[in-house]
Amino acid sequence: MAHFMFSTGIENSCPTIHHGRTRIDEMELCGHYRRWREDFDLVQDLGVKTLRYGLPLCTTWLGPDRYDWEFADLAFGDLERRGVIPIADLCHFGVPDFIGDFQNPDFPRLFARYAHAFAKRFPAVQLYTPINEMFVCATFSAAYGWWNEQMTTDRAFVTALKHIVKANVQAMHTILAARPDAIFVQSESTEYFHAENPAAIAPSEDFNERRFLSLDLNYGRAVNSQMFVFLMDNGMTRQEYNFFMQRHLKSHCIMGNDYYGANEHNVAADGTMTSSGEIFGYNEITRQYYDRYRLPVMHTETNTCEGPRGDEAVRWLRKEWANVLRVRNSGVPIVGFTWYSLTDQIDWDIALREARGKVCPLGLYDLDRKPRAVGLAYKQLIRDWREVLPAQSICLTVPLAPYGLVRSPSPAQQQEMEKAQPH
Fold first, then answer.
1. Which DSSP symbol is given to 349?
2. Domain 5-418 maps to which CATH number in 3.20.20.80, 3.50.50.60, 3.30.390.10, 3.40.390.30?
3. How many Å apart are CA 299 and CA 318, to the nearest integer?
4. Does the bond joining 330 to the residue before it have cis omega, within 30 degrees of 0?
5. Strands 359-360 and 345-346
6. How far is CA 369 from CA 31, 40, 43, 311, in A?
7. Distances (CA, A) of 98 to 57, 62, 70, 305, 314
8. What contacts 24+ positions apart, CB below 8 Å, involve 145-148?
9. How far apart are CA 214 and CA 258, in angstroms?
10. How many CB atoms lie within 10 A of CB 402?
11. What are the C-alpha distances in Å from 286 to residues 54, 274, 334?
12. Hey, what's the torsion of the CAs at 218, 221, 222, 225, to 10 degrees?
């Protein structure tokens, strides 16, 4: 049984732009390296018990089997002393310079070793998001040409996607080898594509299948024939596809759904897209994903700006919370909610494509660490609902205990995990 997990997160995106010449480090830009203790104070003051939190991967992972744990030891040690449970976010949109980008076929193997080393060094950490928003990362890096490899072809997209998802799966195996009762919270963008007219039905249907690719591969769900041909035509081999079908760890996962106002799209007949704004909303789209995967759900990201009236973020919080309650009351096992992130962010209005230094007022607190109206509203929401929501039953191989912690596995489960030790 698991109590409902009210959460927030520290934004730790670190992609490169300008063809690798410029690193966008959101933890640096938002002042977290200097004010991390103060940020953890704010987390505690909010009343959240779980925190989506990751390392600065680009400065922690120095090379194959080479790591600098200095900042990690301080931060994760302090979270443990405070009793705040981290959901460890190991890779958030960027890789270290020595990896290059997501086209590198060595990335899955090397990242799995990094994940194993992290799990051994921080044995108290039990909840993980090995790679954040796999579909978004592959799309922005290799289909839209915005980050990292900055490529724009179907073959580049499939290459990035298969490497990212394989890295995620292999990391789960190696983490379980070090921490057999680990639980994995996939944080993935939930999308929907609306046809503008009858001529746009075919491309919108294609996009509505493609949105599932990262989770289909991660959870070992066979893709439809159209997507199978798309993968095979763009460089995935039968052997690679079979790896995803056979090596998944779905039974150790919670499906994290991220939803923003920009997650729904209008599709034209030529396949071009524009934002549609919220049409279906979190409830309807999350039910589509739940019906496909039948896993416990967590709302792992949402936010919006305060806007000119000053109350848009509070209104969005209330709307998203109403959607969470609707999801739960319709019988879907939803176990947590997250306003992302704790503080305002930099340059997310242009998806980090340029280093402009523009503050985006998306946080519960501004960058001076003063509470925004949505921060005060979230704090009150947590107070109001924390003792009302009963525990949820989580259908995992290893059952969850209070606040996201799980009991130790059986000897047979332990033996199976040990087979995944990295080589």
1. G
2. 3.20.20.80
3. 14
4. no
5. antiparallel
6. 10, 11, 11, 19
7. 12, 8, 20, 36, 42
8. 146/17, 146/351, 146/352, 146/353, 147/15, 147/16, 147/17, 147/93, 147/94, 147/352, 147/353, 148/15, 148/16, 148/20, 148/93, 148/94, 148/95, 148/101, 148/102
9. 14
10. 11
11. 25, 21, 10
12. -80
User: Are the CB atoms for 139 and 100 separated by under 8 Å?
Assistant: no
- The whole-angstrom separation of Cα 165 and Cα 148 is 17
Instruction: Give the tens place of pLDDT for each residue, 151-183.
Output: 999 999 999 999 999 999 999 999 999 999 999
Mode of pairing for the β-strands spanning 85-91 and 127-131: parallel
Give the CA-trace dihedral at 404, 407, 413, 417, to 10 degrees. Answer: 50
CB 51 within 8 A of CB 84: yes
Is the model's pTM score more than 0.90?
yes
Beta bridge partners of 129: 89
Whose tokens are 């995992």? That residue is 396
Give CA–CA dist 395/402, Å, rounded: 14
Q: Which tokens in the block code for residue 208?
A: 């509505």
pLDDT in tens, 103-154: 999 999 999 999 999 999 999 999 999 999 999 999 999 999 999 999 999 9
Which positions ≥6 away from 359 have C-beta within 8 Å? 344, 345, 346, 366, 367
Q: Can you spell out the DSSP letters for 291-342?
A: HHH---EEEEE-----TTTS-HHHHHHHHHHHHHHHHHHTT--EEEEEES-S
- For tokens 């944080």, name the residue: 187
348 is written with which tokens?
């997310």
Q: What sign does the CA torsion over 57, 59, 63, 67 have?
A: negative
Domain boundaries, the chain: 5-418
pLDDT tens sequence across 50-72: 999 999 999 999 999 999 999 99
- C-alpha closest to that of 375 among 313, 288, 310, 301: 313
